[in-house]
Amino acid sequence: ATQNLCPLCNSKEESSTHLFLLCPFSRASWHGSTLAIHSTDYSSSSVQQWLTSVLIKFKTREITSMAYLQAIFTTLWNIWTHRNRVIYEGLTPNPMSVILNS
Question: pTM above 0.85?
């Protein structure tokens, strides 16, 4: 059913893992962010598994770990917000707006 297509790429079924990690839109957002994450490196994981591993890896409360986690969650939030604006406001998907807001 086409209603399940990812609103950001219109080519794959939307799932949390596709939306936040594997969609070309999200890949561009992660790669272009200050984190420079290649999200395809995690294509064998679900987004939940990936986030769990990130939280374990950066569990120390050092300022650098906290800043890294903040950047990750800010990027996730911005991808989600952009997706909703595409659906509900007819916004054209643009990874640069996620990158610049993160």
Answer: yes
